[in-house]
Sequence to fold (253 residues):
Amino acid sequence: MNRNHRLDFFNYLRFAAIIFIMLFGLLFYPINAAFANTSTDIYQQKAASSDGIGKIYMGREISQVMGHQGAMWLERPTRETQEQPSKIASALDLKDTDIVADIGAGTGYMSFRIAPRVSDGKVFAVDIQPEMLDIIKFYQKETNITNVEPILATPTNPNLPAKSVDLALMVDAYHEFEYPQEVMQGVVKSLKPRGKAVLVEYRGENPFLAIKRLHKMTQKQVKKEMKAVGLTWIETKELLPQQHLMIFEKGVS
Fold:
């Protein structure tokens, strides 16, 4: 079997696994079962809009979570041509030994594209949905990629080891965090001194971008929220057709 045939076979198995896990999850695991029931005075509540949860953080309504039922959207064949995610991995300037945390990893779409770039390091694939981690574990076995480690998070904690991560990546995920301040505090704790947090978000400044309003974020809003957890903005790379790639850094203390 040549390499192209092996890739086609693995992709077929991966899609089959995604469909099976989606159906299994619909029967046995409602997504809300994993959500914490805590509240703090940093959040306000209002009537939810059509794509939001009614919870306000720093003037922004938090969007609904895309559940594991949307796994096929993450793996759609047109994603590369529409969003060019391969450019994200190239733009991170990773070293072979880096430890990367893919927060809100979903099906592992980015995790498995980053893994070859950190051949002597590791990718923590972090998600709050066990069904997503099941897809990642299945793909691990089929591809024999050994440096991706699935991590089950909670809505308030990414469950990462302290001061272990060189770079934390969040691709189209941060706007869905039900407890963004708590999660980002956990991310900051996991970063090494001078560690980076990279957020990729659809451009909220563009009203013509055909993405639901709450699934987009402006640079101004992201910078404000990252500053609240002690991260410093370094630069924004505008190399993607629809999204900002924003880089923040942790201090040395």
The first strand starts at residue 43 and ends at 45. Residues 3-249 form a domain with the Rossmann fold fold (CATH 3.40.50.150).
